[in-house]
Every structure is written in C-alpha cells, then in structure tokens.
Amino acid sequence: MAPEYALRGIFSVKFDAYSFGVLTLEVISGVKLSSTDNIMEYESLVVYAWNLWKEGHSKDLLCSSIAASCIPEALLCIHIGLLCVQDNPNDRPLMSSVVFIL
C-alpha cells in the first residue's frame, strides 16, 4: 500500500505504480515485502532494495534463479521497481510510462 494512503488516507493516481514497484521487487528478489528472513537489519524489502541500489550492489537483491540467467533485464526491473516505490508520489512514474519502458 502506498505510504501516502497508509499514513494520511490520501489516494493518488500513482498509487498503482507503488503497488507495481513492490510486486516487482518481491518477484525479482523472491522475498515478500513483510518478510525479514534475508533482510533482518532493514525495516522492509523496499528499504533493503534502496540501500543495495545506493551502495551499487543491486545484483545482491536478485534471487538465485534470476541471477543465473538474465541479469540485464533483472537490473532494469529493479530500477523500475525502485522508481515506482519512491515516497513522493510526484516522483513516481505513471504506469503508462512503466509499460513503455518495459
């Protein structure tokens, strides 16, 4: 659920982009948003993914089956996922832009 809705009950046209970003990060990593199995020191998968991105270690987010075969495509998916989960809805892409990129 997008933070602006969860915290303040504000719905934006980019609510769907946030959900898509979370789903993309879950699929690419094999980790559920609420899971802390592999990311114990982080509060969520989104925070974990952002930290890996900032440190230049995005590949570490990939589940082993994806990392073995399609790294360039997977890294693009991580980038798109992170664009979609930005805290400020104005910074998120429209879903039409995401579809165009894909």
TrEMBL record:
GO CC terms of this entry: plasma membrane
Recorded GO MF terms: ATP binding; protein serine/threonine kinase activity
InterPro entries in the record: Kinase-like_dom_sf
Keywords: ATP-binding, Kinase, Nucleotide-binding, Serine/threonine-protein kinase, Transferase
This protein's record includes keyword Isomerase: no
Official protein name in the record: Serine-threonine/tyrosine-protein kinase catalytic domain-containing protein
Species of the source: Digitaria exilis
